[in-house]
Structures are given as C-alpha cells and as structure tokens.
Amino acid sequence: MLVPVLAIGGLGVVAVMGVVAAFIITGWLGQPIPVLGFEQTFDQPIDFPHTIHASLKELDHVAADGQTMEGLGQDCTFCHRTVTTQANAGIPPVAFCASCHQVIGAEDNDQLMILRDAADIVGDDGPSPVNWRRVHRLPDHVRFVHEPHIRYLTANPSEVTNSTDGVTEGPSGVCSTCHGNVAAMQQVEQVESLKMGQCVDCHRDNGAPTDCAACHY
Amino acid sequence: MTTAEFGTHKWGMVVDVDKCIGCNACVIACQAENNIPINTQDRVERARSISWIRVERYWEGDFPDAKARFIPIMCQHCENAPCEPVCPVYATYHNSEGMNVQVYNRCVGTRYCANGCPYIVRFFNYWEPVWPESLRNHLNPDVTVRSRGIMEKCSFCVHRIRRESRNARSAGVEIADGAVQTACSSACPTSALNFGNFNDPDSKVSKMKEDKRHYTLLDQFGTDPNVIYLAKIDADKKVGAGEAATHG
User: Fold this and answer.
1) Do A216 and B93 touch (CB under 8 A)?
2) Nearest CA of chain A to the CA of B233: how many Å?
3) Domain residue spans in chain A?
4) pTM for the model
5) pLDDT tens sequence across B1-25
6) Chain A residue set in contact with B, beta carbons under 8 Å
C-alpha cells in the first residue's frame, strides 16, 4: 500500500506517517480538536452568568457598587423546568427571564438590555427569541432523555461525580455528573466527553441497559 | 428486580387478517410516525419505495364472485432471523426484548440483510431523505431520520416502547397491557393489528395467539416470527390453520 508513496521519496513516507499518527492520536484521545471547529464552549448572544444565578458561594465578580456578590443558589430546575419530567432540560423562554429582569439588574447593564429588548420591555421591535447556541450536543442518532437519569442519580447520590459547588444531592447536584460544576462557569462549557464510551461505562456500572436499542432508534 | 425492567418483555404482534379491511390506515400512520420519506411515483417505479408496513391484496375467484383478501405485512421480528447472521457489522441483531433491532449508526449499507429477508420488509435508503418544506417541521423528534446508505425497517415503534417503559418506571408500576401501541395498531380502525407482551400470559396478544386460526408467514423457513397471523374466516368454505398458512 505504501509502495507508490515510497517511490516519491522519504518526504512522502513522513507525510503519510504524520497523517496516520494524527488519526491515531485524535482517535485515542477521543476528544474533538478545538482547532477543527469543535469547540467545547461558545460565545452566547447574551453573556449569561450561571455563577450569579446558580452558585452557592461568594463570587469573584464584584458588583458595580463595589460590594462582593454571593451566588443566588437557584436550583437548576428553576429555569430548566422540564429536566425532571421530559427528554429535554428546556431553555426558559425570554418572558421567563424578564419576569425577574424587568425589575432586577442595573439599567445600564448592556447584556440585560439585550434581554429586555428581546422581551419587548425596551425597544419597539416586538418580542424575539434569544438564539442561544447549544453547547452539549449529541448526534442525531442518539435518543437521550434527561428524566430517568435525573431520577436515578437523585435516588443514588453515591453515583454522582463532580459536584455543584460541593452539593451532590437533589436536582441541582446530580446534573454535575455530566455537565460539571456549571454553577462555577461564567460561560458554560462541555467538561465531559459525552461520547458513547462514557455513556456505556456508566450504564454498565449502574446496571442500566447496554442494548443498542436503549439509545439508538 | 425493578418494575418495567429492560428485557423482561417479549414484544409481539397478532394480526387478525379476518378483521383487516385493507384501508391502509396503518401504512399512513407508519409513514408519519417513523419519518419515512414520501414515496414518489419515480421511487415506486424503480422499486425503491420505503414502506415499513404494507397491505398486500389478493383476488380470489373470478369476477362476479371475486373476493379481495388483505394481509398487512411488516417486519416479522423473527426469533431466528435470516437478516441477522449476514450482517458483517452487527448492525441488526435480536435484543432481549424479542425485537429485531436495526442500529442505524452501525449500518454500512451492504444490503445483505435485505437480500436475506424472505418477507421483503427491509428497505435501503438510496437517497438522502427530503420532505417538502411544508412537512419539514412535522418530523417525529423521537425517531432518527435515516440518511443515505442506511438500511431501515419496522422497529415495532421502539420509541413508543421506551416512552411507556420510562413512564411506568417513573410511576413505579409495570407497563399495563395495551399501554404500548405501535403507530399501526393505534391507527387500525378494526383492531386487526394488536401489539403487546408475549411474556405475559394474561396479555391480550398472548390470549389471541392461542386461537386455532393462528399461523406465521412462510412457516417453512423456520424463522419463528414474533408477528402471529390469525387466518381469514370464510363463511363459504372451511379454512383450517394449515390451509391458511399456504395463503400469501
């Protein structure tokens, strides 16, 4: 197979070996290479800080008036309402954000003004959705449902890995198993590979079905 | 053992041919439920249409006394399936729920399985599936859209089984008999198609398949299907189970 390449000379062999090595290394690591466009995080249309909303600790962030801030410690399910009952965790509608933020937050906060514009509190172009970019994406041939995973991990806190600011119980704590400590993320990024190997490992350890048709159909 | 545990069921179907009126509601329901591309005239003429379930029609007798016979045919989910051993990548196999499973992401499109299947119920995607713009948002989000080069077939509406077993586990109960209905069986106006659990001796399908009219398609191949047919009752002549088995 390498014969035609060898005929070109040593450079060709090096090039082929390089490509093969690159394939093996990327395959071995099983992690997408960020330079190829598979980033683990995105800039969102609004710099939504999970820290302020979900953190249970004092934040590095200092408020405009110079006071230190503490995270609100909101439960994940406060905004991601369908996560305990349905397949999708759910992104809250703009109106839901606005129910707090039409009052809360400084007038000159430009990120909040984007939200208020989308919610039609300011501006006159009518309400419009925020085009959040999806960070945790599974391939189309995988059927992932949040509900049974949340249910199982809530009942078995010992299986929870990572933690949400030290909490591993309740609907907020268990999310960290796959999503990492989102409460400490200024910008959400994917921390686990979420590849099939990881799914199968966990399913095997916890006696969940490893049949292909459990997820692929 | 928890309730509704995976692998404790043996899903199967009982088709009462006597009740089938050939209305094709099951075919339409299946096409809509399972994101099957529209079979255009061009595709049908090239014998490349996809139809996970079809209603075959047979004429019996000559004109004045002609009788139409209908028989719905879908993947028989054979216990001893000819499609399974021929797959080089293990993309189709029999799972612990009694279903013949097609794993789309494993399939490499050799089409050996379709050649092996005596029921002609496996279909190959010769093209990327496309829908008219007006139907783009009508796709079922629970079912994978199969891309070009993938073999597909009736899945016994596995997504509905998953949904119902999830609901049952969530509520801490067993899956009730009749809770899981495939798209075709829920669409059937005469209840000719019946879906259920053969492992439960009290289920509707388990009782139905004890009927002396029962037979399986192409019994002589020994595929041991999980789809059981109940023979047509004809007032004019006596039809036994053996005679019915040669029909079709």
Assistant:
1) no
2) 37
3) 3-30, 48-91+138-217, 93-131
4) 0.84
5) 356 778 789 999 999 999 999 999 9
6) 139-141, 143, 145, 147-148, 151, 208-209, 211-214, 216-217
